Fold each of these.
Amino acid sequence: MVQSNYVQGHLAELTESEKAGTNWHMDKSLAGPSLILGDIATHSYHLAAYVTGMDASSLSADVTAVIEGREADDYCGILLRYPNGARGNLWVTQAAAGGVHGLSLTVHGTKGGLEWHQEQPNELTVRPLGKPAYVLTKAGPGLHPAAQRVSHIAIGHPEGYREAFANLYWDFASNIIDDLTQTTPDSLSLWNPDVKEGAMGMAFVHAAVRSSHQDGRWEPLQNLS
């Protein structure tokens, strides 16, 4: 089971730029078919896909604006079905009064669960079945080599949002250089997203819009792998 949340609060009220019609995010001709889906729900969906290694096969979506007077979508609740029988749930909004950033992921499999919150990004809670839960820390013992590789600062010192992007840029640039020089790349550098993730994000947005327009009817997601 997969639960991915992205609960923000900066649009809990109508903004002045929104009232004046000067905020391009609220203009569907510029921002696309759904603000909430294109702006942050794609991040929530991709996080779940990246960690689990699975793309959903179908979804049922409720996409709307919960703030009175708002035209752009600011909320979505989405159920996901995966090819192996797993189930998922996305709760994504920018209209949660008091919310800060709120990106989180919880995964439960047959042997236990994982829990991560971006507001505490250096800790991953592991919950083994029938055993006490424990916490893996950035740059600490027990991490996979892929996690150790992107930890550049000693344990106890925070690494954050900017460093995460730096890791992506480093891998992307090194892949280009390896291709130009015909060098075998570090296998761990190939974990960065590519055009497939971008295409899958757009397929997710359009499937959710279609589903919501048909009162949550289950819509298939095209397999792009």
Amino acid sequence: MLTFPKSERLRHKALVDPLFREGQSLFEYPLRLVYRPLSADQLQHAFKIAVPDGIAPLQVMITVPKKKRRHAVDRVLMRRRIREAWRLQRRQLREAVEANPSLRTLSIGLIYAADSNIESARIQTKTARLIAKLSARINPQPPTES
């Protein structure tokens, strides 16, 4: 299914703050990806009372800094392009997260880093590269014997 449900949107402050404080980063111009894998215990400890319902195995937030794109129209345009690229290409990453038994959820922040608007095709290729890199980091393939 190619929708982008609310459960896949990273919106809890208890998950967002540690993502940028403790997360690891990947870069593929014009996008920077910050990620933080969480086990079930880590997710439980992130919240004071209980884990809220509707936290998907893959959660993402997309941000376009005002410092890079001054006009709201440009920020919205780039956010929509990134969201569309993510929505179409996230399946590989979701399968990697679900295949890893030690992971409960993967928090991701996508940050736009260019000073100008970039066409959708380029955003999609860069997003695909970032997803491939992150999938390889989450589930490293054992070396095959030749």
